[in-house]
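Entry:
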Amino acid sequence: MSFGRMPIANAFLRGKAEFATEYFYELKPALCPACKCFQIVEIPRPEQMFHDHYAYFASTSSVMSRHFAAMAQDLMARYLTGPDPFVTEIGSNDGITLQNFAKAGLRHLGIEPSANVADAARARGVATLSAFFGVETATSIVAEHGNADLFIATNTMHHIEDINAVAAGVAILLKPSGVMIQEDPYLGDMVEDCAYDQVYAEHMYIWSITALNNAFGRHGLEVFHVEHNHHHGGCMRYHLGRKGFRPPSPELNAALAKEQSLGLDRPDTYDRFKARCEESRDRLMALIDGYKRQGKRVVGYGATAKSATVINWCGITPDHLDWISDSTPAKQNTFSPGAHIPVVAPERFRAEPPDAAVLFAWNHFNEIDAKERSWRDAGGKWILPVRKVEAI
């Protein structure tokens, strides 16, 4: 399948002068017949995606801050009961998760390649190393700090092309009893919901349990427990350890059975997914065009990374959306990747209330809808761009 010519999802443009030199690639997902991993074929260089002006700061979402605070408390109770535990996290962003371990006085280290968000983490008191993670980084961390009891990767492992280097690094870094926690958007949810906006260059993999076991099994690690949640449109939290160290949980066995029933390892499943994506695209454009024909004002809400796939594949332009409202300061007063739709501060949404807004941040619907309830009560409509495409 191809979603066509696509910009880097978080590469917001700071001025019209940058339009002519904008980078594009072809967004082509595929299923590996060997490891059953759903992955992107053409991947831009890491420096084009993760750099010193990276535009995603996880802590801007209060819902996700509470989610990771609860996760930290659970992991401390489960796995960090021994003396002087050491916690590491890859892709630690602005310290949204590790700050909870730091506040508890635990030894910790974040590994975050984007310098600007790493600086934000340090400002929160979170020890952070600006680097890409692999064997070399893992070896140097062990030499300086010792082996880790816990290795965390939330919304990160799908961002890394050389997954074997990371898995080899984890095998070096963890203690024999150590645990890796990975949480990412789940392939089963994406396929069931036709949430194709999960597919963009930074999401090089959309993981399943089967694919993750195949990838990490080469390095002596395996999934022994899973927990599903509904964040980001459906995530799976994987607990991995040394092969044979812990027995598989009932939750793992049930989730593997469901993967089998969904056919996540079969090519025909993705043929159907492709057809459903095309139907979803056509429904969305019919909704937007219907509002525009009536002379209605339509905008976007949430300049998410996921929105780049929807906007550019569906052919949404500044003629369709006047602007996109976003609460992240780094994205405001920029232009969206590819389509060059202006990104503005939320105050514009309230000063010039639109008739309808495409909610690109649909996975945060409850949080956002509560915030903008007065607009909805006055007749404003959300347009949901994927899953069940509709105006509500």
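Residues 285-391 form a domain with the Rossmann fold fold (CATH 3.40.50.720).
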